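Handout, section 4.2: multi-component inputs.
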Amino acid sequence: MWRVLISLTLSSALYGFTIGSGHSWLYASRNLIKFPLLILTTGAICALAYFVLARFLAPRLSFRDVQKLVVLLFRDTSVLLASLSPVSFFLAMTMVQPAGDDLGEYPLIQGINVVLIAICGSIALVRQAQTLLRDHGLGRAVSTSIIIGWLALSLFTGGQGAWYMRPFFGIASRREANPPFFLGTAPDFRGARNFYEAVYNLVEPPPRNR
Amino acid sequence: MTESIVGPPEPLSPPPNPFSRKELNKTLAMPLRLLEVVLAERGRLVANITGRRDLARLALAMLLGSVLFALPYGAVLSPSSFWDIATLFVGSMVICFPSLLVFSAYLGVAISLTQNLVLALIITTASALFCFGFFPILWFLRSTMADDGGIVTAEHISIGLLTVSLIAGICQLNRCLFVDKALREVRSNPLLLLFWQGLLIFITYRMATVLEIL
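Output:
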């Protein structure tokens, strides 16, 4: 288990470094700590809920089985992302930098990274569902339900974790002299102060101040 | 000789054994075992209900669990009234329970008071167990979200989590009633059960309003 945790930490740190490099070396180096911290915090906060859900859907899974499967899920995602670090780093280094009000290619690079995370997460998810199916003899529907439930819990909690720990990417034209390590509850450019408000604002954008 | 991966077809499994008195005593001493009793080993729980085995002890353990496992969530939500969530689930069930009992008797469902009680407590215990799973998440959200209002607050999220817990509790009861064949006699009037579950949801909503959780 320690080896898995170490590879998870190193892989996620590497990927975190590359996404921060689009802004500055300061962000990149901070992400060496922040990205693994985000993943490990999410896993730790959700551990109990993962287990209760597993007990509800698949009684055969023990607490140890559940934690192992979840850590493996995160590890696989991190390793897959780490393998894409050169791609992410290259894109970060070559993007058209934001200037003034023009965001340049920042939204594109951010979007590409979100897609990469989604792809890696989905592949890891399918693989762990297959593991559940094979090693624990669970039905396809149960395996899929458990994995989707865990994913939903992770996104629900990890989304807010990522919000609190932001910035990970950052807009390079706004290079404050001493940016905070975590922005915490500080509002974003739309006024959202947490992850859920940010999602809500995507669906129902707030009126612009003139 | 190596074992085949596929192996021979599994024989039909015998009906599960009910939980013994010793196991239920253990559960009373260590309520975390309710995860097994209520969520994981549904077949054995149903065997206790149909066989009327140690139902009073089982009901006591479940009632204890319904209160205990709701307390951490209540303490995170509002430390000064940490009993609110336990009151929400158990109180709503207590209010609705007489109607289940009387309607069952009136419609001729052959089920005893303790059987009915254990069935009703499946909802509260499963909901409380889910709340127990969610309390670290709520704590994390409250710690990382601004608490001076906004479009989406930790209180809104908490309402969502409580709703999920209640739905999970109701799903667990319905899995016992409708998925397993053993409880055929109890579900002889599914309309009554659906009506009662609707009533419970409504009363839980009212209770949440009264307790100012909503």
